[in-house]
């Protein structure tokens, strides 16, 4: 699996896709956090990074599928999928290596945003006047969100040999899981709306963003990731049916 991980990660770094994705993410978040007057921290008047954590999931919703769309679809189109599957590797190792490479690159995009936290920390009056617990929870939520989106993207790529189809399917899947249940919950009232909302990612992400790291939220994200990766394994195993 580590060999697959190194191969996939190096292939990302040797292609312009990774740099375009990282560049778009940093430029877009930078504009919203520091430049646009309706969302700028400098105009907002409060020392927090809520703007970053509100906009980042929507950017990830498009950028992570752009990373994952080639994982299996490109192998199928190039005719190298059969060669890969004949190697002394299990399906789990192949999926794990490709998935972790995509996730690692997505998490790499978050590292430069730590400068935003440092800047807001220093700009606070007094310095350090920022809710660090909520910030840590929000970063954890973003990391788990990226992990779920990457798992959905890898599954979408395994279902088709066309990268564009894989990208569109992953975007739709990520959107439905992130925002679809919230939209559906708004149709209902009372307890039913609450339980429907809890099926989506957004409700659990909001809890983490408050600095409340609950085992139920962590279990939800891990279960969703495991489910998508197991579904990907079933897709690969279907070649033997």
From TrEMBL:
Residues annotated as transmembrane: 12-35, 55-73, 94-118, 138-157, 164-181, 218-236
GO CC terms: plasma membrane
Keywords from the named record: Cell membrane, Membrane, Transmembrane, Transmembrane helix
Localization terms from the record: Cell membrane
Pfam families: ABC2_membrane_5
Membrane topology, record value: Multi-pass membrane protein
Record's protein name: Gliding motility-associated ABC transporter permease subunit GldF
Species: Hymenobacter rigui
